[in-house]
Amino acid sequence: MDDRPALARRLGLRDAVAIGLASMIGAGVFAVWVPAAQAAGPWLLGGLAVAALVAFANASSTGQLAARHPESGGAYRYGRARLGAWPGFLAGWGFVVGKTASCAAMAMTAAGYLVPEPWQKPVAVAAVLVLAGVDLLGVTRTARAATVIVTFVLAVLGLVVAAGAGGLLASGIPQHPPAEAPAAGWFGVLQSAGLLFFAFAGYARVATLGEEVRDPARTIPRAIGTALGIALGVYAAIAVVLLLVLGPTSLATAGDAPLADLAEQSGWPALAPVVRIAAAVAACGALLALIAGVGRTTLAMARDRELPTPLAAVHARSHVPYAAVIVAAAAVIALVLLVDLRGAIGFSSFGVLVYYLVANAAALTQPASERRVPRWLSGVGAIGCLVLVAALPIESLLGGLAVFAAGIVYRSVRTALDRRARLG
């Protein structure tokens, strides 16, 4: 193994779109509707619209920045280049820590759909090992696996929408009990937007792989826009059919598999177990893309000595940041075995919003010659991130602040030690 080789540009537009879609069309699309409906009630589509607007603004800023800075690291690299070392570090720290928790959540979600509880942790660990192994084989294999996974999941989601629409055409819209406005009013809509936003957040995975994309200035913005557009169309269709078939009240009180409930109520009960399998496969697809993204951001930070430098090692043959991927996989496995992740997802959400806040702030500094979207759109993205952070539950806010405080202490101590070593 050789630590010197750089990453290879092997991903085309189709590969980049597949990785972005695999990150977005994950387990969230199968499970996020219930808590979002609990927060927004009949105003669920309003929450989806807010989430889509913030996601579009963030995606526009990310694509514009990626065209100018086609390197691994995403918003970490953009923040460092345009805003300074500290903003860049905070973006990278938020991504690495938050998405590591998300990786563990995806592994446990996949296992939860496939096997009974006593077997869930071993199966989750096995999923992490297998998918990290795929990533270690090379980014083109990651892209091929992501393509297969997202094609299957999109086909199942298409069948679910068709089942719901067919039931509505055959029997008409069911009579649902009158739905009350959310108790929290507009704040409930913002909370639902915060939950739904993270179903869109996978487009950043394309940017974190920027050093492995061919013709990145052209390919990355197109891939981000294409993946986001497809995901938005899928989510909007599912949301409309869920509200019409189940109704906002029943959706808010549904179990952990609302799309399976939709299939059963639409007269397609045989589709329900297929939906569960697709949910597990989608979680694995998201996990595959997340491990790749965490590995590349860790690589970028290690190159800059923001994380331990051995994590910058790249395999001479596969051109994969193998040390970063192995450490990321080990951290995910530790979380799967030791932690109840239901509370940890809150600070993951916090971290992702900080990540995109830095990206939008970096995009605001770009001169007119580099701009592909209006400056005001980046401002909308930054404000949207702040609003959604403020709408998170208090536990998520406190957890996120604690995690970022730990990162600030780590960097401060490391910087002080490096300064002492240079002077001594």
TrEMBL record:
Keywords for the protein's UniProt record, in alphabetical order: Cell membrane, Membrane, Transmembrane, Transmembrane helix
PROSITE patterns xrefs: TAT
Localisation: Cell membrane
Cellular component GO terms, alphabetical: plasma membrane
InterPro entries: AA/rel_permease1 (IPR002293), APC_superfamily (IPR050367), TAT_signal (IPR006311)
Bilayer topology term: Multi-pass membrane protein
TM segment ranges: 12-34, 40-59, 90-115, 121-139, 146-171, 183-203, 224-246, 277-299, 320-339, 345-364
Main location class: membrane
Pfam families, sorted: AA_permease_2
The keyword Protein transport belongs to this UniProt entry's keyword annotation: no
Top-level lineage group: Bacteria
Gene3D superfamilies (UniProt xref): Amino acid/polyamine transporter I
GO molecular function: transmembrane transporter activity
Name of the protein: APA family basic amino acid/polyamine antiporter
